[in-house]
Amino acid sequence: MTEPLLKVEGLKKYFPIKSGILGKVSNHVKAVDDVSFTVQEGETLGIVGESGCGKSTTGRMLMRLLEPTEGVVTFDGQELTSLSNSDMRKARRDIQMVFQDPYASLNPRHTIEKILMEPLNVHNIGDPKERKKKVHEFLEIVGLSSYHAKRYPHQFSGGQRQRIGIARALMTNPKLIIADEPVSALDVSIQAQVLNLMQDLQKELKLTYIFIAHDLGVVRHISDRVGVMYLGQMAELANTEDLYEKPLHPYTQALLAAVPVPDPDFVREEVIITGDVPSPANPPSGCRFHTRCPFKMDICSEVVPVFAEVEEGHSVACHLYEESRPQ
Amino acid sequence: MTERKTILDVKGLQTSFFTDDGEIPAVDNVNFHIREGEVLGIVGESGCGKSVTSLSIMGLVPSPPGKIKGGEILFQDKDLTKLSEKKMREIRGNDIAMIFQEPMTSLNPLFTIGNQLREAIKIHKKDWSKEQVQERAIEMMKLVGLPRPEGLMKEYPHQLSGGMRQRVMIAMALLCDPKVLIADEPTTALDVTIQSQILKLIKNLNERLNTAVLLITHDLGVVAETCERVVVMYSGKVVEEGPVHTIFNDPQHPYTKGLLESVPDMRFKKDRLYSIPGNVPKPGSVKTGCKFAARCEFAFDRCITESPELYQTAEDHQTRCFLFDPKEVQSHDRTIIES
């Protein structure tokens, strides 16, 4: 196997909970707790999970928009987690991010030209004339027109704004794009347009994506591999087909069974999980899913299951598969 | 299936907002009805007027700038649009109740759950004793599957999770045995595993209590799973209406077709998603012709100049599209024969 483009090892993020007037740290919210994965060049890794599972925090830590508490992120042979702030800024030229809310992530006072020019200014790419040319070129690439450059964000619809967000991420010719819920604020008909655009761009510009979303249908559509997160940990990671066709972790099974399918004749497999996601400040002992798991065994509440491969390319953190693991 | 009585009949409803930029017709001549004990879904993208329709039924359209310009909303032989605020208040909660998308903002953070449930009962059942009120509140909490109701009564909304809050809202809505429950995006703010619990609960209560449900949503999966009949709205108009099976298996309006094809299906992978070109028009921006014409791949001259009506295409199934106009169908056949 070739060296992965991105390698994440033991990534952790603990947010302190302060209490009392002195602000003593009484506990930690373990938003991300020991997450490891790799991303190959040219592939799309989908990360799914319910709210509060730490998927967005993970995405932000990869770019060091949030400082990881622990763990190592290696990108293209370079260890990002040990870079100085100014070196990190340079490294961000190759890693760009697309955000969820196209209304909040574009400065309403700047024209589209200014917004798209910004990354070029920051990274000192080209002279003013070339920069302008590049802005117009990328507007066309994402399906807008060069005359849009003089307009302001409020003059665009949600779908168009997300196209601008994507264009901005592409300006520096990055290798990796981290897209955090890029289509969840969009209507279904517009969502399909943006997903198609992202797929086309990936082919044309040989991009690698980390696609963070909660919509399992969208993630299946766009991803080559999918990781399922639960309460700050990776529960299962596999090729998209394997994960959707034969999910191993009980949580993945329940999650897939819960998605409403647009077909009234579809008879779903019942996987009953009850209750809510526990608080990440005080996660359950042992396996974090044991409080809701229909297959709970005695060991589950005591021992944390290891996240390891069960079959080639299919990793899961569950005691049910402990024995079937290759030794 | 036995013929069920119509319980709520919306006829030619027109709700507009009057702004500085002129009149914006959010709901433009909408007709539909709900039968006793059925689950009817209204589905559409943002700005199609589905929420304004539900607010119009409840008499909750903010006025000004909003105003019900025309049409009737018939409930038990009364026209809700003509009722005084006092009369309307008797119907709201008693006969027609509503739950909203965001359970956090619908509950008052300063009062306990018990306090808010009891208040809702006291408003409608003035002669009940304290014990009766308490008993009813606990009964409803058990009905919606809330654990340890006595303890929860003393807690505040922030101590509950999103799913539990939505259960409290449903309990509150059903306190007075309403005949119609309007649920406006009840699960949009919830995670999928919680969403499936809440949908199951709504469906279950609909069957047990025979409460008719008007479910408003943008999620086609939710509609397929819970509704018996579906109304598809686009830009303030009903574009298609029919039983859930024919809407999903044999959609007729080009918009419905496009919408269904653009949803990524969790069960299998499509190479490429179909996408409807263009954007959802702003309400009121399309003045003449079919509102969908600009994005429709089947549009012809007539679509741009004339506004189509709803054509009956099958029993219980209507479509607002010239492709189903008997006259067009005839002339189309003729051109095929001639060529």
From TrEMBL, chain A:
One of its GO terms (molecular function) is ATP hydrolysis activity. GO terms for biological process: peptide transport; transmembrane transport. Pfam families: ABC_tran, oligo_HPY. SUPFAM superfamilies: P-loop containing nucleoside triphosphate hydrolases (SSF52540). Signal peptide: none annotated. SMART domains: AAA (SM00382). The keyword ATP-binding applies. It comes from the Bacteria. Residues 6-256 form the ABC transporter domain. Keywords: ATP-binding, Nucleotide-binding, Transport. PANTHER family: TRANSPORT ATP-BINDING PROTEIN. Belongs to the ABC transporter superfamily. This is Oligopeptide/dipeptide ABC transporter, ATPase subunit. It comes from Planococcus donghaensis MPA1U2.
From TrEMBL, chain B:
One of its GO terms (molecular function) is ATP hydrolysis activity. Signal peptide: none annotated. It comes from the Bacteria. GO terms for biological process: peptide transport. The keyword Phosphoprotein does not apply. It is a peripheral membrane protein. One of its GO terms (cellular component) is plasma membrane. InterPro entries: AAA+_ATPase (IPR003593), ABC_Ni/Peptide_Import (IPR050388), ABC_transporter-like_ATP-bd (IPR003439), ABC_transporter-like_CS (IPR017871), Oligopep_ABC_C (IPR013563), P-loop_NTPase (IPR027417). PROSITE patterns: ABC_TRANSPORTER_1, ABC_TRANSPORTER_2. SMART domains: AAA. Keywords: ATP-binding, Cell membrane, Membrane, Nucleotide-binding, Transport. It is found in: Cell membrane. Pfam families: ABC_tran, oligo_HPY. Residues 8-260 form the ABC transporter domain. Belongs to the ABC transporter superfamily. This is Oligopeptide ABC transporter ATP-binding protein.
